[in-house]
Amino acid sequence: MSESARESVTVFDVGGTHLRWAAWSPERGLGIVRRIPTPSRTNRPHATVDELRADLVAAMAAPVPRNGTAGVSFGAALNHGTGIVYASAPLWGADQRPFHLADALRTQRPDVRWHVVNDVTAALLHLVDSPDLGDRRKVLLATVSSGIACRTVDLRTGDIPVDGCGLQGEIGHLPAALTVDGEPMPLRCDCGKTGHLAAYSSGRGIRRLADALRARRADVWRRSALGTRLDGGEPFEHAWPAALGEACPAAGELLDAATRPMADVVRTALCLDPELDLVAFTGGVADGLGETYRTALLGHLAREGLYLTSERDPDWVVRRVTMCAEGQADGLVGAGLAAARAGVAR
What we know:
The protein has 346 residues and is α/β, with parallel strands linked by helices. It has 16 helices and 15 strands. It has helices spanning 3-7, 49-61, 89-92, 101-108, 119-128, 197-201, 203-216, 218-223, 225-231, 236-245, 249-272, 284-289, 291-303, 309-312, 315-318, 331-341, and strands spanning 9-14, 18-25, 29-30, 34-37, 69-74, 77-78, 84-87, 99-100, 113-118, 138-144, 148-154, 179-180, 183-184, 276-282, 321-323. Strands 1, 2, 3, 4, 5 and 9 form a six-stranded mixed beta sheet that branches. A hairpin with a 3-residue loop joins strand 1 and strand 2. It is globular, with a radius of gyration of 20 Å.
């Protein structure tokens, strides 16, 4: 085995849409990043969950060098004490049968040292590995992508606390509500239940929200830049940001509606834990919209902020909410850091 293979960790980042992997080491950083569509309910809606799990394990087992080390950033609710995966709506829909991913990977490749963490935990480890955080006490990282979740770390101790089930920050499945023109707009989450945060604010939720708004305002959408682009066959993930750049009212209303439930969560988090000195956002939706997303969030928090604090110090919230820069919270790097932190990586 080459010196490079001995020293590098094969790192994976598994999301509902893409499976990425690369070689990583603290000295050389990331090598060439490869990507394939994830075997998931998102990409293969007619496959069984057992088929998707088997194909995912096989896809992850193949790239690791013999007798190598692998760190995995996994987009699912998992027990950080046992490694058991409880559920992932983007990966497996409503199925909540426990799945011991690490055991399945070890069975497939017993020669490999595997270490699995939640994808938001991995991204947070990379974010706080930066020397630029100053004297901040606690950092919350939220990912807004095909799913939604967050993690909080206490920088004074390095602890990412979990509850008795090994979980923290599964905000995507908190109850949420949205009204438009005074009328409720109930939407179903990928987990099968109605009225979760992810049903409105995740990437897939935003698309469903767009369909609901379009049905409610058919004439407005038909004349809008967003509606015109979609009718012309442009993919939603390209049409929406472009329409926002053209100040399209329909696109703006969609952004306002999609960020409102997320702003509710941020407001509550800052109210309950004033030691949160940074609330950072990453993930496909947040990264794709960048400062446009932050501006929409802060608009909600300016209109309905923290009791007294927002009146006495209007910039208190503004100073805390930020968007991660490109490559600042990468689950691939975090997977390597997590493996090293656990003593798995050599």
